[in-house]
Amino acid sequence: MGKKTEKSYDKWMDRIKIAQEYRRKLFPADMWKRYVNYYKGNFYLEPVDWDRISVNLVHPNVKILQAALVARTPEIKAVAREQDYRAREPLIETAVNNTLIDINYKRTLKFILRDAHIFGYGVSKGGYDFSLKESVK
To answer: What pLDDT does residue 44 have?
Structure first.
């Protein structure tokens, strides 16, 4: 069992190293610091520029985009393809709709839209739980 754990650990560490190297090439460290400062509202780094008035043009644009795309929490309608599964439709609809409410889907989508507007892409965690079985030779 120890070999499988070490193999899995090494595989994930290799993936993390590749992702970090890609991030370093794509976005240097000073660029990340600048983006974090933008989030905090620090647009000017030099004391000479601190007396300037900065207008956040991203926030109003994102608010307009959010209003157009996210009016309310979506409701999922399940339609079974086969007659045998028609009785399960209400259960599936209720489960999925309550899950969207529980994970606060609307709020998460707003964050994704904001990030996509600023950085060009938005990242979300999603999916189902599943187990991945590896074949051992």
So the answer is: 66
